[in-house]
Amino acid sequence: MASLVKFSRKIAFISPRRPLECLFLLGMVTVTLAATAQHPEYQTVGGWSCHMCPRGTFVSQDCTSDDPASTVCTNCSEGRFQPSEWTNERRCYTCDECDPGLDGSLGGEPLEECTIYQNAICRCPDEFYWSQPNRRCTAVTECPPGQGVTHTATIVADTECEPCRPQAFSATSSAEETCAPCLICEELQREVSPCNQTHDRVCQNISMPTGE
Ligand SMILES: *[C@@H]1O[C@H](CO)[C@@H](O)[C@H](O)[C@H]1NC(C)=O
Ligand SMILES: *[C@@H]1O[C@H](CO)[C@@H](O)[C@H](O)[C@H]1NC(C)=O
Ligand SMILES: *[C@@H]1O[C@H](CO)[C@@H](O)[C@H](O)[C@H]1NC(C)=O
User: Fold this and answer.
1) CA of 47 to the centre of ligand 1 (A)
2) Among 8, 136, 175, 191, which residue's Cβ finds the most Cβ atoms within 10 Å?
């Protein structure tokens, strides 16, 4: 149901005038879309097409070969979720439990409870993020020298790093710093050592002849 609502919002965006009338029309548009081939479909093993199931549900029975809309979609059960807008999966995923600190490892605090539409969101201590694959708090990665941060870690995602491009460098490991542009030697300076991914360029003043 939530997916249909979301689907409708996109359409609402296109026709923002007269909200009430739109709401009414949207109901019809949604139903019409669902009734035509524009509803996302999947192929059964038997080779015919069936409507996919919306967020929060799974396919508990394929449609019959003569009616693509007859797919049976069932709500995820307690403790399970299915976050894709449309799915042909036959099961929901198991919700994360925020505090699996069974073996003394760090646990997370529930920030949002699991619903049938989305996994629980768990908040970890500083410098840790909740790793969904590992189902535990995991130390945030520091980008090593030669790499800069492109995305800092979030509650549920690790830092993302990228190698410094030409003429940029990163001399330290850091979970925050991006690559910095290398120094450019001024006029009347000479390069003492070049710029590479891990070292800034070093420039030195050319000592001027002191005249007579
Ligand atoms: C499925 O879940 C939604 C949201 O929790 C609920 O509104 C709806 O009634 C449920 N449908 C069935 C058939 O249980
Ligand atoms: C980068 O430059 C520094 C200083 O010039 C040098 O010591 C280092 O070996 C260089 N690293 C690479 C990978 O070229
Ligand atoms: C280099 O020259 C600039 C300008 O002439 C001066 O401000 C700076 O202090 C000098 N640096 C060194 C290391 O001598």
Assistant:
1) 30
2) 136
User: In a mutational test of the pocket of ligand 2, which residue from 164, 195, 199, 202 has the highest number of ligand atoms less than 8 Å from its CB?
Assistant: 199
User: Nearest Cα to 135, choosing from 94, 89, 90?
Assistant: 94
Asked whether the beta carbons of 82 and 76 are under 8 A apart, the reply is: yes
The alpha carbon of 201 and the centre of ligand 2 are apart by a number of angstroms equal to: 10
Protein residues whose CB sits closer than 6 Å to any atom of ligand 1: 75, 116
Looking at the chain, how many residues does it have?
Answer: 212
Contact of 116 with 84, CB cutoff 8 Å: no
Location of each CATH 2.10.50.10 domain in the chain: 41-94, 147-205
CATH superfamily entry for domain 41-94:
Tumor Necrosis Factor Receptor, subunit A, domain 2 (2.10.50.10)
DSSP letter at 69?
Answer: G
pLDDT digits (tens, 9 = 90+) for 49-72: 999 999 999 999 999 999 999 999
Question: What is the CATH T-level fold of the domain 147-205, as seen in this structure?
Answer: Tumor Necrosis Factor Receptor, subunit A; domain 2 (2.10.50)
Q: Whose CA is nearest to atom 12 of ligand 1?
A: 75
Q: Is the pTM of this model over 0.85?
A: no
